[in-house]
Amino acid sequence: MRWAVANANVALVKYWGKAPGCEHRPATTSVSVTLENLASAARVEYRPPGAADRVAWEPAGPTQELGRFVELGRSRLGIDRPLDVLVTSNFPVAAGLASSASAYAALSTALGSLAPEPPRTDRLAALARRGSGSACRSMLGGFVQWRPGDDAGAVTQLAPAEHWPLQVLVVVTSTLPKRVPSREGMHRTRATSPFFDAWLIATEQDLTAVREAVASRDLHLLGPAVERNALRMHATALGADPPLLYWEAATVAVIREVWRLREEDGVPAFFTVDAGPQVKVLCEPVDADRVALALASLPGVRRLLRSRPGGAPRLLPGPPAWAAPRHAHGS
Ligand code: DP6
Question: Is residue 316 part of a domain?
Answer without folding.
Answer: no
